[in-house]
């Protein structure tokens, strides 16, 4: 997103009014109408009844507190191999508007939501890390929203990077589609911190990732971050079939390898389009022009729609071809794929998520 | 409300402003009224010299076909149509639930009577056990606007909300063309046909009418040796193949490899659903230990056959797996 995001309206949960993060956000959004509310849940229900609650939700910021836990294991999906990743739920939802975004169905709350009770987060993080101190943890914030899209309002990344750069047994990842990297560039890099971009073919980025910067802009941002001394990562997820996908993805892989030094790439993940059945209705309603639903999507072992397996294998094999020799230097893994797909494409079949985790943490372990 | 005996011939059944039910069978009700009389009086109201039915259409029509001269009715004396309609709704809710079409009709009447969409969402949607969103209201209103022939199929086939919703995505002309193919099929197959056809049309940018006018479909439609059900099934299969060409090729290959192996009919073998897992399921029945042993021996023979690996791969040669 070339222009930084600003909501059209801000709602503040009354009990969250006096947190430092609330004050910071309000200072930076003083031109935006603000309303203090008694009960965030009522507001969420009101939004739910609208004709396009998601679109309205993206224009609205809710400042509230996280009542549950901030840190959770990534739920992955039953029947496929995970990667033992942990997620930090600081902010929910995302002002970008990708056709395939799982959050459209995953969250009951359509508002862009910032949780301001940051002290609780650090307290929970300390406990979590001490419980997991005996092995390397991979953890990140980009699951229930984009890690950096609100960063000019919250400075979230600054705090995160400051906290995690001291941690020795953690690989911390920020995952974004944006170029909102000012705070990252200001913060000192560390071997344990990875800044990751979701990439797609230029056509998919343009047609299906509304509001997101172009692939070239994302790679430019990744280049700046790499030059600053960080390791970067790339997620080709979701890979989408369309007429001409081979050329489209060959091109983006080529651009990535031209722009970024392979030894600076911590990992690359590959995941083809998949989504729970109720999301189909949402996509049809919100994006009637999109064609992504009309390829051969079947129900996988987890009940979600995904491409018929031979078609997924074809996609992934092409990626391996596009990556060429670079694949020897970069750990490539699948997000939510089955053992036989790993074996057929990458010639290895991890026994479980722990093995994937070890595989991805190895370069970090080596370089320490 | 006061109770009155109303002559049946003065009830104006042409004015349907409060009517929500159109598709029903009167037979059982006629028999019951003939045997034990009308237990539950309808509600009527006076409008400009006319007597209109607020609720109880079935009861009035049943009494008419029994040629009863008059029946007891409750009379709603207010002049506000919306109030009368809501009263009828409440009265119905006390003894029955509404069908999909009735719910659609109720919501459409409420909008016609001037209730705002937001008020319907907040009020009647929950009363009718429909999720309280404007999107749901939109779909019910679309269902209410369907043509009577289509509504008759929805009723007779007891179609569910998702199938009716799919029907609203087609144009009137497309629905008309589809009628004969939909009618013989069960609900799941109707849904599959409607969904696949729509998706093929959108994927290939070909109007539904052109797909249905295609030579392959027309050949099925004009085949004299096929029953309506067989035609509908063939059309469904054809559309499914168009929608899932690679998966269909895999299924065909599996079938032909089985044939090549002379796989016996009394032992079933199935790949995992959509070939997603690596497992296969074998199933057979037996009456006694001899039959059991025979089938195991046959299975062992089959597994040792050199062509078995082809069956278990099932991958069509041109595919690159
Ligand atoms: S960037 Fe990610 S979180 Fe944001 S809309 Fe796209 S898929 Fe959803």
Task: List its traits.
heterodimer, A: 368 residues, alpha/beta, pyruvate-formate lyase- activating enzyme, eight-stranded mixed beta sheet, five-stranded mixed beta sheet, 15 helices, B: 321 residues, alpha+beta, Conserved hypothetical protein from pyrococcus furiosus pfu- 392566-001, ParB domain, 4 domains, four-stranded mixed beta sheet, two-stranded antiparallel sheet, 17 helices, 56% helix, 11% strand, elongated, binds iron/sulfur cluster
Short summary of the structure?
The complex is a heterodimer of chains A (368) and B (321). Chain A has 368 residues and is of the alpha/beta class.
What does this protein look like?
The complex is a heterodimer of chains A (368) and B (321). Chain A has one domain: pyruvate-formate lyase- activating enzyme (Alpha-Beta Horseshoe). Chain A has helices at 20-28, 40-48, 53-58, 103-106, 118-131, 151-154, 156-164, 182-186, 202-208, 215-227, 245-259, 277-286, 309-323, 339-346, 353-367; strands spanning 9-13, 34-37, 60-64, 71-73, 85-88, 91-92, 97-98, 112-115, 137-140, 170-176, 193-199, 209-210, 231-239, 265-272, 274-275, 297-299, 305-307, 332-334. With 368 residues, chain A is an alpha/beta fold. In chain A, strands 4-5-9-10-11-13-14-18 form an eight-stranded mixed beta sheet, sandwiched between helices. In chain A, strands 2-1-3-8-6 form a five-stranded mixed beta sheet. In chain A, strands 15-17-16 form a three-stranded antiparallel beta sheet. In chain B, 26% of the residues are buried. Helices cover 56% and strands 11% of the residues of chain B. Chain B has helices at residues 27-36, 57-65, 81-93, 100-112, 117-122, 124-127, 134-144, 148-156, 161-168, 172-182, 187-204, 208-212, 215-222, 228-243, 245-260, 289-304, 308-313; strands at 2-7, 43-47, 50-55, 70-76, 267-271, 280-284. In chain B, the strands form two sheets. Chain B has a four-stranded mixed beta sheet. Chain B has a two-stranded antiparallel sheet with strand order 5-6. In chain B, a hairpin with an 8-residue loop joins strand 5 (267-271) and strand 6. The radius of gyration of chain B is 28 Å and the shape is elongated. In chain B, helix 1 packs across helix 2, helix 9 runs parallel beside helix 11 (187-204) and helix 13 (215-222) runs antiparallel to helix 14. The model of chain B has no long low-confidence stretch (mean pLDDT 93). By secondary structure, chain B is an alpha+beta fold. The A-B interface holds A 48-51, 53, 79, 285, 291, 293-296, 298-301, 308-311, 313-314, 317, 338, 340, 344 and B 118, 121-122, 132-135, 138, 199-200, 202-203, 243-247, 250, 272-278, 315, 319-321. Bound molecules: iron/sulfur cluster. Residues 94, 96-98, 101, 103, 145-146, 177 of chain A line the site of iron/sulfur cluster. Iron/sulfur cluster (SF4) is lined by residues 94, 96-98, 101, 103, 145-146, 177 of chain A.
């Amino acid at each position: 997103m070339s222009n930084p995001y600003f909501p059209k309206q801000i709602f503040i949960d009354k009990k969250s009014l006096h947190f430092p993060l609330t004050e910071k956000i309000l200072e930076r959004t003083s031109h935006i109408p603000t309303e203090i509310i008694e009960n965030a849940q009522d507001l969420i229900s009101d939004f739910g009844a609208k004709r396009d609650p998601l679109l309205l939700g993206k224009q609205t910021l809710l400042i509230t507190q996280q009542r549950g836990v901030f840190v959770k294991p990534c739920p992955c999906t039953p029947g496929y191999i995970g990667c033992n990743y942990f997620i930090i739920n600081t902010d929910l939802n995302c002002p970008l508007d990708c056709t395939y975004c799982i959050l459209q169905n995953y969250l009951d709350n359509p508002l862009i939501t910032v949780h301001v009770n940051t002290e609780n987060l650090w307290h929970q993080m300390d406990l979590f890390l001490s419980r997991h101190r005996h092995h390397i943890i991979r953890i990140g914030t980009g699951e229930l929203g984009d890690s950096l899209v609100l960063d000019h309002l919250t400075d979230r990344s600054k705090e995160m990077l400051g906290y995690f750069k001291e941690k020795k047994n953690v690989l911390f990842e920020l995952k974004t589609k944006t170029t909102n990297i000012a705070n990252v560039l200001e913060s000192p890099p560390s071997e344990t911190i990875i800044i990751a971009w979701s990439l797609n073919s230029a056509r998919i980025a343009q047609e299906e990732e509304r509001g997101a910067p172009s692939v070239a802009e994302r790679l430019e941002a990744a280049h700046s971050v790499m030059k600053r001394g960080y390791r970067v990562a790339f997620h080709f997820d979701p890979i989408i079939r369309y007429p001409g996908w081979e050329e489209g993805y060959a091109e983006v892989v080529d651009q990535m390898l031209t722009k970024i030094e392979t030894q600076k790439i911590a990992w690359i993940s590959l995941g083809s389009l998949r989504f729970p059945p109720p999301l189909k209705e949402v996509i049809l309603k919100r994006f009637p022009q999109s064609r992504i639903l009309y390829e051969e999507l079947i129900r996988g072992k987890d009940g979600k729609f995904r491409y018929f397996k031979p078609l997924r294998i074809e996609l992934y094999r092409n990626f391996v071809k596009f990556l060429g020799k670079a694949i020897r230097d970069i750990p490539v893994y699948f997000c939510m794929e089955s053992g036989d797909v790993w074996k057929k494409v990458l010639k290895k079949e991890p026994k479980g998520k722990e093995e994937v985790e070890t595989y991805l943490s190895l370069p970090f372990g080596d370089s320490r | 409300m006061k109770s009155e005996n109303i002559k049946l011939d003065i009830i104006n059944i042409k004015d349907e402003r409060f009517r929500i039910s159109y598709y029903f069978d009167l037979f059982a009700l006629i028999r019951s009224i003939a045997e034990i009389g009308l237990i539950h009086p309808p509600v009527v109201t006076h409008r400009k010299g006319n007597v209109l039915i607020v609720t109880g259409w079935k009861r009035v029509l049943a009494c008419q076909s029994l040629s009863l001269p008059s029946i007891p009715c409750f009379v709603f004396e207010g002049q506000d149509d919306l109030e009368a309609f809501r009263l009828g709704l409440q009265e119905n809710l006390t003894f029955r639930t509404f069908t999909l079409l009735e719910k659609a009709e109720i919501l459409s009447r409420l909008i016609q009577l001037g209730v705002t969409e937001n008020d319907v969402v907040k009020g009647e949607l929950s009363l009718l056990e429909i999720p309280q969103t404007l999107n749901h209201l939109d779909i019910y209103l679309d269902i209410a606007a369907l043509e009577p022939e289509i509504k008759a199929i929805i009723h007779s086939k007891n179609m569910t909300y998702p199938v009716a919703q799919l029907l609203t995505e087609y144009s009137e002309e497309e629905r008309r063309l589809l009628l004969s193919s939909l009618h013989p099929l069960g609900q799941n197959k109707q849904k599959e046909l409607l969904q696949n056809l729509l998706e093929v049309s959108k994927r290939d940018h070909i109007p539904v009418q052109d797909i249905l006018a295609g030579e392959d479909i027309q050949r099925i439609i004009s085949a004299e040796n096929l029953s309506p059900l067989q035609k509908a099934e063939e059309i469904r299969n054809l559309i499914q193949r168009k929608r899932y060409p690679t998966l269909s090729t895999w299924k065909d290959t599996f079938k032909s490899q089985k044939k090549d192996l002379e796989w016996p009919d009394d032992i079933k073998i199935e790949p995992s659903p959509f070939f997603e897992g690596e497992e296969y399921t074998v199933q057979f029945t037996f009456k006694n230990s001899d039959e059991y042993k025979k089938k195991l021996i046959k299975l062992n023979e089959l597994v040792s056959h050199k062509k078995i690996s082809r069956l278990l791969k099932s991958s069509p040669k041109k595919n690159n797996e």
